[in-house]
Amino acid sequence: MTLGKILVVDDDALECKSLTEFLRLEGYQTTGALSGTEALELLRHNTYNVVLTDVSMPEISGFDLLKDVVANHPSTAVILITGYGQIEGAVQAIKSGAHDYISKPLVDEGVKLSIERVLEQQRLRTENEELKQRLDARNGFGPLLGRDHQMQRIYDLIEVVADAKATVLISGESGTGKTLIARTIHAKSSRRDKPFVEVNCGSLPETLLETELFGHTRGSFTGAYSDKTGRFEQSDKGTIFLDEISVASPALQVKLLRVLQDHIFEKVGGSKPIKVDVRVIVATNQDLKEQIETGAFREDLYYRLHVISLHVPPLRERVGDIRPLAEHFMNRFRVENGKDILGITDDALRAMQHYGWPGNVRELEHCIERAVILTKGKYITLDELPLPTEAVEKSMEADVMLPLKQALAAPEKDIISRTLKKVNWSRRKAADILQINRSTLFKKMRKYGLEDKSSHAEGLER
Q1: Model confidence over 223-250: pLDDT tens digits?
Q2: Homologous superfamily of 142-313 in CATH?
Q3: How many Cβ atoms are within 10 Å of 62's Cβ, its own excluded?
């Protein structure tokens, strides 16, 4: 089993063959091309995970090849091999769609690390797309997006309770997606073709909330010039969603309790009972048990509402969902705004993952919308995100964490360099002290750029 398909492009036949053979020995399926023209022909008939291309080539340069791959082969990543003085152009190429660049002279470990990093990014992107497709296939779960185990439990519970008649209580901080969950429950129920009526109890004055829910009769109060149908009556045979239920007054709580028990109510100012068949879903960002202790919320109403309970965790407790959510919002807003954006940079994603998101998913959504509008390039960068300095600093600290092999490279180079200096750059003596053979020592010296410094001592060793 190969680790991936790599196309190596370099007009230097020796360099191309060397890279191709090295990557093949590392487990990759590799193909070499000696020109940009040959590479384009191979790309037309084959699919590659990565194109590793030299920048300086006649006729079709690495930059030209990059443009073609970005335009015609979006699933293929491009890594540029740059020479001295080309770094600035390579950085610009990153903004144009290249996934990475490495500088000459090439070091085997550096090439291998770059490819591994790019393939890991592709794997995560593919995993996110597959997850999105699975969620979309679950008939309405697509917009919820979340691979965190807590969200998976919520999806499973929605499947179970969607068609029940019991009241559902959804708790969680503001912005976590409680309304979306209520809509999903309705969409997956047998009431899906009937009305879904939403009432934000916190947005209405106490004096208007009762008449909004139950309606009123003509002349029942000043300004009641005609009969009004309430939201419960409008949602008959369907679902009513009461958000911020904790603000309901004691009198309204009594009336809500009767509706939940008997499915009967009277309009404000009226005496005729109205019977409805309605599924009730409520949501709160407050702790109702604490409100019961203070006397602000009726205990009997709480237990009527608490038949089925769903708690939506805040975004800071499911960091793994930030990336798929951010990419989902990016895809939506780039279409809405006609922007040609390919993705979000790694440093921007890291910063988002180190931010607490007090406004939860809603705040993330607004953040990505702003970034999409402000972004001029192909990728959303850290500069376009309105994140606090603390989150950016934490992400930068996390970025310095290295794999063990890479972290040990610097001290290894220092030990070898100091040993060579101590023995006047004699490879034989240094190898004896370090207890490695001279061939291994020479490879490490070449890896760390130490071989030139020993050239003056080579004659003495011979």
Answers
A1: 788 888 999 999 999 999 999 999 998 9
A2: P-loop containing nucleotide triphosphate hydrolases (3.40.50.300)
A3: 28
